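Slide 14.
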Amino acid sequence: MTEEDRRERQNREVERNFEAFQKLLPGLLDEHFGEIAVMRDGKLFALYPTMEEAGPAARKEFPDGFFSYQEVDDEPADFGGMSYAFMRD
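Slide 15: predicted structure.
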């Protein structure tokens, strides 16, 4: 896979995950506000209290790097890389 192919796949993954996250968000806000959602293949993988916990867990589970993070908040998170989601650090 070329670097360009990889970036394109990452962008598709982030978009798919963000759309799925937006649908899940209303049900997550009350109990998980401020937590970090790890998304993969348009599905919620897990929720973590902090980015410091979410990052290593996601990288261990998905070493290929095709996942994204999103903060459970009523506004899109900016973790860098993307304006509303972050693929990997």
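Speaker note: The chain has a mean pLDDT of 87.
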